[in-house]
Amino acid sequence: MDPNVIVNRIVRLAKLDTTVFDEVRDDARELIPALVVAAIACLLAGLGALLFWKVVPDFEPDGLVVNTLILGTIFTVAMYGVAALIIYVVMAQMYKVTIDLQALIRTMGYAAIPLALSVLQFIPLLWPVFALVPLALLFVMMIYAVQSASGAESTQVVMATTIGFTVMVLVLGIISVSGSVTDAPIGAGIFGIINDYK
Fold first, then answer.
1. For residues 57 and 177, is the Cβ–Cβ distance under 8 A?
2. Residue 100 belongs to some domain of the structure
3. Would you say residue 198 lies in a domain?
4. DSSP H helices in the chain
5. I need a surface site. Which of 52, 58, 84, 131 has the fewest CB within 10 A?
6. Rounded to an integer, what distance in angstroms lies between the CA atom of residue 26 and that of residue 127?
């Protein structure tokens, strides 16, 4: 695992160079780096939610670090993994597409990079941009990742990705609004502040 190669791929993806997905798809050594990239992106989204509550509203809810940073990051990582598994099942079972699960995980790991932009949610007035745009970019990157891993038709890729993404957003949204009135919402990124000033 060469950190310079990983950073180079992240920079290339930031420039929308989606050939990165083809590279990591076929490189078995990229499984752990892809998981690390996804985890760090989710952690940065959690940090963004934490900073949002520290800077933007006039108050700070209880349990902020635990709920937004720690639990939010854990739930986001877990649900992103669930989204990848759902996409795999839809492609393999519904569309009968031959797809390698590890190749999908490698590409999906790098596709999580847009979540890192959520760290900028603490900027007053601009926080909705850094809460919502990363989700849109994540969806687009997921489509490219699934396309690379599966080689399936575009319609199949978009449908499978939409199903996986929808489940992830739905569950994280439910989790974020399930806390008590005095506690910070549980969730990373937009999912931690979805019920604005609870």
1. no
2. yes
3. no
4. 3-14, 19-25, 31-55, 64, 72-89, 101-111, 127-150, 154-176
5. 58
6. 37
The pLDDT value recorded for residue 181 is 52
Is the residue at 64 inside a domain? yes
* Alpha-carbon separation of residue 83 from 140, 145, 160, 169 (angstroms): 14, 13, 10, 9
Average pLDDT over residues 145-164: 97
Interacting residues of 138 by C-beta distance below 8 A, sequence separation 6+:
111, 112, 114, 115, 165
- Tokens representing 68? 């937004």
pTM for the full predicted model: 0.92
Tell me which residue range forms the domain holding 30: 3-192
Q: Which two tokens stand for residue 172?
A: 């994280």
Residue 197 counted as domain residue: no
Confidence label for 75 from pLDDT (cuts 50, 70 and 90): very high
Percentage of the residues of the chain whose pLDDT score is greater than 70: 94
